[in-house]
Amino acid sequence: LIVMLPLAALYFTHPGAGIESQHDPVNLVFSILLLPYPVHPILGVAWTLVHEVLFYLLFGLIIAAGRRALWILPGWGALILLLALLAGPLPFPFDILLNPFNLEFLLGISAALWLKYGRVPAPAAVALAGAAAFLSAMAMGAYIVPTPLLARTVFGLSSAAYVAGIVELERTSGLSIPRPFLLIGAASY
Question: Looking at residues 17-34, what average pLDDT do you find?
């Protein structure tokens, strides 16, 4: 909001600045609330937060509904996978609700369940492999991850492996994450 509101003020006071959707008052409301809208938020990089808010809303609904609603998460993941493999581009709002980016949240839940109910074998190797896979995918770009589904799978699995390995190291070997890194991580929330 600290960046988006002054940016919105600029767009609304200078009609020649930005693109047409950044002058849309309805987009301003959706941008402030970080809710899905057919165009990117006024602050373009906030599109990732739209997916995050969507996930937290869904997760909150599942918490409110109780355990019987847990099937929604694997069902959501399966539907995303199926449509990514079989369908072309989806219309709004399905392009956001069923976007492969949302698989990364489900992979994060999988890592949390792995850590809750099991142990990560060779956690240093798992963390290193996750970091190496992530960095390799970043370096290779479209050559290694040519489709959105493959990109989300590679980045999501490598991130989940890294986090699972580091958390296991933290809880079993006394690894201590330096306070500045913890603050940076907490700052995203």
Answer: 93
